[in-house]
UniProtKB/TrEMBL annotation:
Signal peptide: none annotated. Keywords: Flavoprotein, FMN, NADP, Nucleotide-binding, Oxidoreductase, RNA-binding, tRNA processing, tRNA-binding. This is tRNA-dihydrouridine synthase. Belongs to the dus family. One of its GO terms (molecular function) is tRNA dihydrouridine synthase activity.
Length: 337
């Protein structure tokens, strides 16, 4: 029987949040490559629709979100990082079927239910953070997912929908058969605005201690560095932290021993990311998705803004390579002058 990594997870744990068009197998591999041993513990897939997974035609259009490259598998094993599939929807039966598929057909070692995404068109359909307003449906979804798979199960959510309801909502979830609860310190109405309320996350920790001490509680929101994560663990009592947008400020966030990242390292990572993306998806995913990452790598070095502008005009790995070579040539010429 498979061991439950949540039960064995030592505090503090660090995880990279599931993010749409971000945490595919390619970006996860880049983060793994650039993380120090035992600094990153959990990785999550992109949001995966249970409706899409259970649709006769839509299945093939959605299942790429659950792709795991062999090179990523090797790094996961080498660095002892657990990979979790995050799923969303509102039909318990489809959660059951999707959980079965993940357990039987993929190498994910855990499942996470999205009850936190605040995007308006998703919420209008009654999914994700909308479930905060429908606790009974949320319960049915959790039970169906648990029935469909014996993989470790977690829920990612927020502290409320239109208003803060930490006590009632978190207490409800803590009564469910889950192994971990990830709490983002904002309500749906805030989206990503304002500051995450870590005092409410601390309330969730206290509720956990009283109701279900065996459940791991992870805090999420506004953690921009490894040290900030450690500070949050010490101050608010969470078992770990999940980092989302902070990775866009520093893709080397899980390498706290790296005091400075020079231009060469940034551009090498940019190229490796681009090359792996094209080899992985072979034109089946929009190349433009990569451009959000170019902005991450192209900053804080001479000529970065100009290079970034050139990269925004590219549409293939070949063109990216040409832009990088042109940048290097220009820098060398400037140094000779």
């Amino acid at each position: 029987m498979q061991t439950n990594f949540w039960h064995e997870q030592k505090a503090p744990s660090f995880s990279l949040a599931p993010m749409e068009d971000v945490t595919d197998t390619v970006f996860r591999e880049m983060i793994l490559k650039n993380s120090e041993q035992d600094r990153l513990h959990l990785l999550f897939s992109e949001f995966t629709s249970t409706d899409g997974m259970c649709h006769e035609i839509g299945h093939d259009k959605v299942k790429h979100r659950l792709q795991i490259n062999q090179s990523e598998k090797l790094l996961l094993k080498e660095k002892s990082v657990k990979l979790i599939a995050q799923i969303w929807g509102k039909d318990p039966e489809k959660y059951y079927k999707t959980a079965q598929y993940i357990a039987q057909e993929t190498d994910f070692v855990g499942i996470d239910i999205n009850m936190g995404c605040p995007v308006k068109n998703v919420v209008k359909s009654g999914c994700c953070s909308a479930l905060i307003q429908d606790p009974e449906l949320a319960k049915d979804i959790i039970l169906a997912t648990r029935e469909g798979s014996d993989l470790p199960l977690s829920v990612k959510t927020r502290i409320g929908f239109k208003e803060v309801v930490t006590n009632s909502w978190i207490s409800h979830l803590l009564g469910m058969p889950i192994d971990a609860l990830i709490v983002h310190g904002r309500i749906q109405k805030q989206m990503s605005d304002g500051l995450a309320d870590w005092d409410e996350i601390a309330k969730a920790v206290q509720l956990r201690n009283e109701i279900a001490p065996q459940i791991k509680l992870i805090g999420n929101g506004d953690v921009l560095s490894y040290q900030e994560g450690l500070d949050k663990v010490n101050q608010f009592g969470v078992d770990g932290v999940m980092i989302g947008r902070g990775i866009f400020k520093n893709p080397w966030l899980f390498s706290p021993g790296l005091s400075e990242v020079d231009e060469e390292r940034k551009l090498n990572m940019l190229w490796e990311h681009t090359d792996l993306y094209e080899r992985t998806w072979q034109g089946n995913k929009n190349f433009a998705i990569l451009k959000r990452f170019f902005k991450i790598y192209c900053k804080e070095f001479h000529g970065a803004a100009k290079l970034c502008h050139q990269l925004m005009q590219t549409s293939s790995a070949k063109e990216v390579k040409e832009a990088l070579d042109f940048h290097k040539q220009n820098i060398q010429l400037e140094e000779l002058v």
